[in-house]
Amino acid sequence: MKIIDSVAGVFCHQDFVFAVRRQSHLQAFPGYESFPGGKIDREDSPQQHPSPFLCDFDGQSIHALVREIAEELGYDLVAAISAGEVTAVKFLATALAPATAPVRFRVHFFRIDLQSRPLFELDAGEIAAGFWNRPEQLLARFRRGDALMVPPFRWVLERLQRNPADYNLGNLSPQTDETLFVPRFELLSGLMTLSVPSNTFPPEKRTNAFLLGDPQAPQVLVDPSPEAPQVFERLVRTLEADDLAAIFLTHHHHDHHEFAPELAKHLNIPIWLSADTLDRILQKQGKDYFSAVTVEVRQAGDCLTTWKGESVRVYSVPGHDAGQLALAPDSLRWFLVGDLIQSFGTVLISAPEGDMTDYYQTLKQIIALDPAVIIPSHGMPMRSTFRLHSTLQHRMKRENKILTMHASGKTPVEMLNSIYQGVDQRLFPFALETIKSHLRKLQQEGKI
Question: Domain Nudix hydrolase, which positions (predicted)?
Answer without folding.
Answer: 1-155
